[in-house]
Amino acid sequence: MVFAAILKTMATPTPLSRLFTVLLTGVLAGLVLAVAALPGNLLLGFAAQAALREYAALPDALRTPATPQRSYLYANDGKTLITTFYDVNRTDVALAEIAPVMQQAIVAAEDRRFYDHGGVDLRGMLRALVSNVSSGTEQGGSTLTMQYVRNVLKSDPNRTAEERAAATEQTVGRKLQEIRYAKALEQQLSKDEILNRYLNIAYFGSGAYGIAAASQRYFSKPPAELTLAESALLAGLVQSPEAYNPIDGDADAALNRRAYVLDSMFATGAITAEQAAQAKAEELALDPSDQANGCTATASAADGWGFFCDYLRRWWIAQPEFGDTVEEREQALRRGGYTVVTTLDPQIQATAQQQATDIYGYDNKRAVPIAAVEPGTGRVLAMAVNRHYSVDANPDGQLNYPNTVNPLISGGGSVVGYQAGSTFKLFTMLAALESGRTLSTGFDAPSRLPTRYAAGSDDSACNGQWCPANANPQWMDGYRMMWDGFGRSVNTYFVWLAEQVGQDKVVEMAQRLGITFRAEADANFAENNAANWGAFTLGVAATTPLDLANAYATVAAEGTYCAPVPVVSVTAPDGERLPVGDPSCRQVLDPDVARAATDAARCPVGQQSAFGQCNGGTATSVNRILDGRPVAGKTGSSENAATETFVGFTPQVAVAGIAANPDDPTDLVGSAVQAQVIDAVARIIATAVDGEPVESFTAPSQDLVGTPRRPVER
């Protein structure tokens, strides 16, 4: 409101201040009248030359708007909203996406002569000056263009806080600058473009900036669907967003203001008297919706999405494309207006969450974190755990349940992971195959195997040396090859095999496939003493379901490792797709080596290898649940059944789940839960491949098969 605001800043009226006000107003009014009296062509000539100079000197934000906008996160279908991120609740939309009646309403409410003036309404300004001085009432003289200038300058994220505050200072100098900027903009931009920009930046109250956010906040609909009554209500809010706000303020005041806007629309010819009367008679029919903000605000009906959202946010702030520092990248997510299509598959996620909570409820101190990954792309399809992603307080004595925001599935921060037991035997088998050994490599596995490594505890010692044992000697002991050694999970066979290959080669293989050592002790062992890490093949290092699923996905993809990624695409507000999120893959294994390992991994799940060498498995229910579809995998039990793990994969998906107590590694989950974890992973795989074509694994070459001791079944 142009000079009304200036006058309002005067101190408590005194005779002297009142005299100064009158003199100042008279001078300004005289200037306005003098300019209005200039010959039209002379005025236009001066204005055009000045506008060209002024436009070149405009702040970048006025020439190229950089208003903060909300970023949207969608599931992999591009439609299911996960959440949004914002500091300022705003989303820009094109003018064509805004109902024409809304465009008419804002013009009628704020600037009836918008299409007649050149950025500054001299007639309206003079009228406001005279009224403000003579009657003491406050009338506005700011045009939509001038209001737009003010809104841009006070919200420009590239300006300092002091500069943004200066954009609303009640001074003559600031107002004159606003007028100059408005004139310059009108010389370069069309009325429609100015109107569009204004509607995208105006504040409508209740945290909603711009018409798209306001339409959703008050009526839960896009701005293209706004009715006459709804448009008039929203247009009326701009003058005093908090006073007229029907959600947080005065509903009666909002209705009175709506009536004013409808009368103004009739006065401008935008609507008829009958239309105005009908709209005035409508009740205040709000349908407000809260605008989700951040990972703790994901839909409650989709519990577990918060953990995926958190993983995406952690990924985001590690990407240099979004800024040079973590702070800049975080700001880009909250202010950049990006549309992010993530890799999250709602159906797989729903199944994973259901399976996790079927094993342990939300209030159970034990947890089953689960991750699903797509082989050949690294796309993370699901992340589930029996926890609420929430900062809400927990009952006394309950550290991380039912609420937590710790990354229990992906690891990070204080979460280093969990022992995954015999699932690490895969890395020993791969290292052996890569070294030239074949699937037929045989060893007469004893119940206990004396090794050259120093014993870590009395119960595993043989004359002071580490002496691992088979969990079920009657079923595991005897002559074994890779097929049945893996299928029956024979500890002594794989410890022997790791000794033949070299423990350092096994550790390196795990790292090559993406296993990250987050525990300090594990990282030190891997770096400084890997050759003597005898128990590594039995899965004593901590890992996460995401790392484990992705490692097995590398084998499923015939040796192609892809870094885990949570996004399919990231699109900027201008429609440009950013060069992030594409699969980052490389060949880390000879395809034949991966195929050979997969052939052996058919044994644990109750299926048969291409060479008929499977004769027992630890997870045979998987074959039944998958109804014979080609699948592979491996169970893992850490010492004393402290944790229970299963990883399964097809060519299309790899899924890993680990039952553990994230807060207390000494709390043993017990072997009984293993069957539940196996079935849970299998059912998630079944959901992932439902409706997809059946894909078979490729058999390895004879070079990696060797000569089995038993006849090969063809």
Automatic annotation (TrEMBL):
Family, as annotated: In the N-terminal section; belongs to the glycosyltransferase 51 family. In the C-terminal section; belongs to the transpeptidase family.
Catalytic activity: [GlcNAc-(1->4)-Mur2Ac(oyl-L-Ala-gamma-D-Glu-L-Lys-D-Ala-D-Ala)](n)-di-trans,octa-cis-undecaprenyl diphosphate + beta-D-GlcNAc-(1->4)-Mur2Ac(oyl-L-Ala-gamma-D-Glu-L-Lys-D-Ala-D-Ala)-di-trans,octa-cis-undecaprenyl diphosphate = [GlcNAc-(1->4)-Mur2Ac(oyl-L-Ala-gamma-D-Glu-L-Lys-D-Ala-D-Ala)](n+1)-di-trans,octa-cis-undecaprenyl diphosphate + di-trans,octa-cis-undecaprenyl diphosphate + H(+); Preferential cleavage: (Ac)2-L-Lys-D-Ala-|-D-Ala. Also transpeptidation of peptidyl-alanyl moieties that are N-acyl substituents of D-alanine
Any Gene Ontology biological process: peptidoglycan biosynthetic process
A Pfam family assignment: Transgly
Record-linked InterPro entries: Beta-lactam/transpept-like, Glyco_trans_51, Glycosyltr_51/Transpeptidase, Lysozyme-like_dom_sf, PBP_transglycosylase, PCN-bd_Tpept
Ranges where the Glycosyl transferase family domain occurs: 81-265
Keywords assigned: Carboxypeptidase, Cell shape, Cell wall biogenesis/degradation, Glycosyltransferase, Hydrolase, Multifunctional enzyme, Peptidoglycan synthesis, Protease, Transferase
Keyword Hydrolase part of the UniProt annotation: yes
UniProt-recorded Gene Ontology molecular function terms: penicillin binding; peptidoglycan glycosyltransferase activity; serine-type D-Ala-D-Ala carboxypeptidase activity
Protein name: Glycosyl transferase
Domain (Penicillin-binding protein transpeptidase): residue spans on this chain: 371-678
Record-level GO cellular component terms: outer membrane-bounded periplasmic space
